[in-house]
Design a protein that fits this description.
339 residues, alpha/beta, Nucleotidyltransferase, domain 5, 5-stranded mixed beta sheet
């Protein structure tokens, strides 16, 4: 009798598709289960190798299924798509997942813990609220500009302007506009306080992590970058090298080569744009404050002589990622490099 060897699960909100193969790759099951039936079904079989796409709620389901004794592997959806043989539907997707998870060269996503996910959600919330703050500031400046009040750029200058100069133009503005601007100012203060509370939570989590403290010694790596990287990567030893981690972050050139001709394009920009942006900002800060005796000064100077500054920023961000990997994967301390 054929026995199940691998299982593929196509996740959804309420209806899940379950596909199972035997060791030879023959399809044994491809059925629909309701959300409340999934764990009950899996608890009565196995343990098996179970594959899922890394998507919304996938880490939750991976943790719950692992408790049943199964081995769970998460895969990036773009790596599963080539295994879909027919038109897209739930049955074809589940079959593709079941086939992809058994491939020996498949790349997997590490299952995040509840603490890692919670910390990443704090970062996502902070990033979204910062964008809301920027949009609100732009609306305040645009509203006052319509009545001839020009406010200097920057949120700190806006705060100074409200303290020192708003009363000068307040009498010349329509009463309804004054109430509206004061209402937006009040919302802006609430947003600032909320961002500060998020920062305090992120700082507390960062201080409790020895890994965060270790990589914060690296120039250009601050509290935000260290905490979100440790939460995103988990175990750095899952990456074979620093270059592999940098490629995962999308900081290496994309390649389009054929017939022995190698063509390197711009950076691939894979993975998380938020994390890549933090590393780029950190590299930009290192270059801005670079001077003799500082880490990477000579290396940065030599690059600036022959390429655009933006390329140097990406190159330094790539270098910082590799240094981070060496510290996390090898459990080392950072040693400043002055070349």
């Amino acid at each position: 009798m054929d026995t199940i060897y691998t299982v593929g699960i196509d996740l959804a909100k309420s209806v899940f598709q379950i596909c199972a193969f035997n060791r030879a790759g023959k399809k044994l099951i491809n059925k629909v289960l309701r959300r409340n039936q999934v764990l009950k079904f899996l608890s009565n079989i196995g343990p098996f190798l179970i594959g899922m796409e890394a998507c919304g709620s996938s880490h939750y389901w991976a943790r719950e299924i692992k408790k049943l004794g199964h081995t769970v592997k998460l895969m990036p959806p773009q790596y599963v798509k080539p295994y879909v043989k027919t038109n897209k539907n739930d049955a074809a997707d589940a079959e593709a997942i079941c086939e992809a998870v058994s491939r020996p060269n498949m790349r997997f996503v590490s299952v995040k813990s509840e603490e890692q996910q919670a910390l990443l959600l704090l970062h996502r919330e902070r990033d979204g609220v910062v964008k809301e703050r920027t949009a609100l500031i732009n609306r305040i400046r645009a509203s006052l500009q319509e009545f001839g009040a020009i406010i200097p750029a920057g949120r700190f200058r806006l705060q100074i302007w409200f303290r020192e100069d708003f009363f000068v133009v307040e009498e010349s503005l329509p009463r309804i506009l004054c109430h509206h601007v004061k209402s937006m100012q009040s919302r802006l203060m609430d947003i600032e306080n909320y961002i500060e509370s998020l920062d305090n939570q992120i700082n507390s989590a960062s201080k409790e992590s020895s890994q965060c403290q270790a990589i914060r010694e690296i120039p250009g790596i601050g509290r935000l970058t260290s905490s979100v990287l440790v939460a995103s990567v988990g175990d750095a030893k899952e990456f074979e090298s620093g270059r592999q981690l940098s490629a995962w972050l999308g900081l290496v050139p994309s390649q389009h080569s054929s017939g022995g001709k190698s063509l390197l394009l711009g950076i691939s920009k894979r993975c998380d744009s938020y994390l890549r942006r933090l590393f780029s900002h950190g590299a930009r800060a290192v270059i801005r404050h670079s001077k003799p005796g500082k880490p990477y000064y000579e290396w940065i100077t030599s690059l600036l002589l022959r390429m655009h500054k933006n390329k140097v920023i990406v190159a330094l961000a790539n270098k910082l990622v590799r240094v981070v990997w060496a510290i996390l994967a090898r459990d080392q301390k950072y040693q400043a490099q002055t070349i």
